[in-house]
């Protein structure tokens, strides 16, 4: 069996990472494929995920807070270092399950994933040659040109930190109108249209800053389309799988491990 494809899901708090991971795992199962869902958030209180491998078996945020007298943010930082020390135990638990994809739900605060050296060590230890990152765009922020640009820059920063293939995903599209969704799609594909929207939104004193930020985006190159999805409606999940397979298998489908079931 080939090494499984590993996808790390990250994005700003509220982008819908856990819900998307659960929805995609369910879609994969319905299509005849097996996934291992991994929770890397020691402070997660979600009951929606039901991970097969849960970092809370080794490190729990509440215990770190109590033992070291830390607040939630300080405890998350300390916990990340502790998880790095347990990463080979986590990897062994993942490897024993032998599935097609490994779906890794990262901590809700993107900075804990993107900017801690411990996170990079964890990704390096867990990832094989078949790994990528899905950066989820929250439509509440992405709907404004400045918010959209901010998310692009953050996505580019994550890519720069980890040097893995990236896929930008717009989540919760069921809260957008058709016109808003079409506009976001144009921004993700047409640099000129995004630039026009940014400069139109910005007051005159900020036009120069907007211009410089946009030039940085063009230089880094994160533009290139935004995959639209809705976990609630089940849309975009097959397209996400196809995008992942372009990285993992040159676009070829996986061989189903069980009979697909209707959704």
Could you characterize what this model shows?
The protein is an alpha/beta fold. It has helices spanning 17-30, 61-68, 72-85, 87-95, 110-114, 117-126, 139-142, 145-162, 178-189, 191-201, 207-220, 237-248; strands spanning 5-11, 35-39, 53-54, 101-105, 131-137, 166-170, 227-228. The chain is built from twelve helices and seven strands. The mean pLDDT is 88. The chain has a seven-stranded parallel beta sheet with strand order 3-2-4-1-5-6-7, with helices on both faces.
Strands, helices and their partners?
Blueprint: E1 5-11, H1 17-30, E2 35-39, E3 53-54, H2 61-68, H3 72-85, H4 87-95, E4 101-105, H5 110-114, H6 117-126, E5 131-137, H7 139-142, H8 145-162, E6 166-170, H9 178-189, H10 191-201, H11 207-220, E7 227-228, H12 237-248
Parallel strand pairs: 1-4, 1-5, 2-3, 2-4, 5-6, 6-7
Note the main attributes of this structure.
263 residues; alpha/beta; Rossmann fold; seven-stranded parallel β-sheet; 12 helices; 7 strands
Widest sheet, order of strands: 3-2-4-1-5-6-7
- CATH architecture label of one domain: 3-Layer(aba) Sandwich
Number of strand elements: 7
Gross morphology:
globular
CATH fold call of one domain: Rossmann fold
Uncertain segments of ≥5 residues (pLDDT<50)?
A: none
Query: Biggest sheet, in brief?
Result: 7 strands, parallel
> What fraction of the residues are assigned to beta strands by DSSP?
5-15%
Arithmetic mean pLDDT: 88
For the record, the CATH class of one domain is: Alpha Beta
Q: What is the distance, rounded to the nearest whole angstrom, between the alpha carbons of the first and last residues?
A: 27 Å
Percent range for helical residues? 40-55%
Q: Considering the protein shown, what is the CATH homologous superfamily of one domain?
A: P-loop containing nucleotide triphosphate hydrolases
**Helix/strand/pairing class, anyone?**
alpha/beta
Radius of gyration: 19 Å
Number of helices: 12
